[in-house]
Amino acid sequence: MAKMEGVAVAPAEHVAAPWLVSDTPAAIVRRRPGGLARFVRSSPLGTVAAIFLLFVFAMALLADVVTYWDPLVTNYGLTRAAPSGDHLLGTDHLGRDILSRIVTGARISLFVALIAVLVGDGVGLAWGIVSGYFGGRVDLLSQRVLDALLSFPGLILAMLLLVALGAGLSTVIIAIAVTRIPLSTRVIRSVALTTKSLAYVEAARTLGASPLRILVQHVAPQCIAPFLVIVSANIGVAITTEAGLSFLGIGVPPPTPTWGNMLGGVLAESFRPPWWLIVYPGVALTSTVLAANLFGDALRDFLDPRLRGKLTDL
Amino acid sequence: MRTYLLQRFLAGMVTLFGVTILIFVAMRVLPGDPLAMMTSESGGTYVLTEDELQAARSALGLNRPYYEQYGRWMLDIARGDLGRSFWREEPISDLIVRRGPITAQIAVAAVLLSWLIGVPIGILSAVRRNTIVDYISRVLVIFFVAVPAFWLALLVVLGGVLIFNWRPSLTVVQFWDDPATNIQMTLGPAIVLGLGIAALTARMTRSATLEILHDDFVRTARAKGLRERLVIRRHVLRNAMLPVVTVSGLALGGLLGGSVAVERAFGVPGLGTALVMAFGQRDWMVIQNLVLLYGVVFTFVNLTIDVVYAALDPRVAFR
């Protein structure tokens, strides 16, 4: 976070005549010491959520170490076993340990969501800046492309891309990433649009700075805070999308455990699915999404409260 | 106003054009062609011999240039011919007529439910700000925004099975044939999806109401001695409804997507279930035209939202 603030403060230093900067946008995060401490104080709930996310993240990284059972090993003598001392959360229809699968599933869920969001929103960042700054015909065309992308419900767009690209971990990431592009582009574009008419950008232009220099030095830093907000807001959405795709059997292919395909496996069950097959993976999924959302909200309020309401994403 | 409507309509048509291009590229250009996708080793389920493949290709016109294929597709749709399922020979229009009403019914019921629950809770939460009512509703909102609808659906099914020994119906039952069974079939998905949108609606209503409560005209209304109830109903509510319209519109799109997974969880034989099955079988004509249907419906929903919004807030049309 400290690094980001350092970048974000850059434009102010390049202004030839600081008194000309009449309307400093709130998006500029001023360099103040103790960013982390201020975040903790401003949002205790967001801090708790962040700690929980870190915990899930640690579990995901250490999955091989902390799990007692191999998540892939089947045991046909012990299928659908109720939670017990041996298998704390029970076993599934192939006798695999639920707890191990949930912990290992965290790895896929978080990995897919994080990469997809960084890629999708990264594209949105670049696209939004260029489109907003240059405007004109490029902007008009790109707006229509975004309209078309936005005309699909996210899950269906992802399904369409998956059928085109074939199933697999990397294609799931690409599919989810694409669904994240339109909204982030919109938000970043609007930031770039307002920034380009600010006095210090015009001053830089008057001084003869090249468009590339203006984009990188002056416009881009303004988009960092909104970008971080978008990323954090999108992680929960991406986790849900991945889970939904895997639940439908078109996401990450089995036997790799993910929260989604653990829940999807239940559909193949008889008419009386054991409750632990449904409840535990769902609790892991929901609590992680909840934590991601709470952290996202807290970060937004901390960095740029004006984005409130702009990111109601579906 | 008229120019605004015309402008929105044209933009909608351009969007639809983009939608068709996107689907076409995804379905025909990216994987080679749909038949390659179906028989390929990665994900394809069926194996055709080379001869069968060539025969099927020329029968479906897949060996023609792309622009011609696209033109044919558009022409077929213009004539109302949506093609047939590759595996079952069933016309896709039959499929839509049979399964579409169930999905539409779920979506409409979910949106109505979200207004019934979300708007009152949002207003109450704003008017009684920082009271226990507000806290409880905010916690509920945060929870229901986060919880994935398909998991909630699974929990409901699980509860139904374990407690009432209930079984989801597997065949399509239209409302006009057997209302009781039909409602039993659609109520669950509608409630599960409705709660999710209700949470978003409540959040939006709350923040909009809070903003408006501090506006000058509200102070004026109070100053002239209007009762608080009337101030809320006549001045605040009406303005607070604007963002709710937007949320509901966006939500309807998410709903169409979300309902795919929820239909699957409940085992409801709607369009979403058909789409998932088509994906499983790589039934490309069904995928292509069902996805197009979702895109068209969503585009028209958005168009309707724009019009409704302009009608509610005339300033929009003059911006």
Report on the structure:
The complex is a heterodimer of chains A (314) and B (319). By secondary structure, chain A is mainly alpha-helical. Chain A is built from 13 helices and no strands. Chain A has helices spanning 2-8, 10-14, 35-42, 44-61, 63-66, 98-134, 136-150, 154-165, 169-196, 199-206, 211-247, 259-267, 275-303. The longest helix of chain A has 37 residues, at 98-134. Mean pLDDT of chain A is 79; it is low at 1-30. Chain B is mainly α. Chain B is built from 12 helices and no strands. The longest helix of chain B has 39 residues, at 228-266. At the A-B interface, α7, α8, α11, α12 and α13 of A face α1, α6, α7, α8 and α10 of B.
In short:
The complex is a heterodimer of chains A (314) and B (319). Chain A is an all-alpha fold and 314 residues long. Chain A contains 13 helices and no strands.
Q: Given the C-alpha coordinates, what overall shape of chain B results?
A: globular
What spatial form of chain A do the alpha-carbon principal axes imply?
Answer: elongated
Could you list the spans of chain A in which at least 5 consecutive residues all have pLDDT below 50?
1-30
Class based on secondary structure composition and strand pairing of chain A: mainly alpha
Question: What is the chain-wise order of helices and strands of chain A?
Answer: HHHHHHHHHHHHH
Helix content of chain A: 55-70%
Can you count the beta strands of chain A? 0
Question: What value does the average pLDDT of chain A take?
Answer: 79
Major sheet description of chain B? none
Radius of gyration of chain B: 24 Å
Order of helices and strands of chain B: HHHHHHHHHHHH
The amount of helix of chain B comes to over 70%
Count of helix runs of chain B = 12
- Low-confidence parts of chain B, pLDDT < 50 over ≥5 residues? none
Residues in β-strands, percent of chain B: under 5%
* Biggest interface found: A-B, 49 and 63 residues
Number of helices of chain A: 13
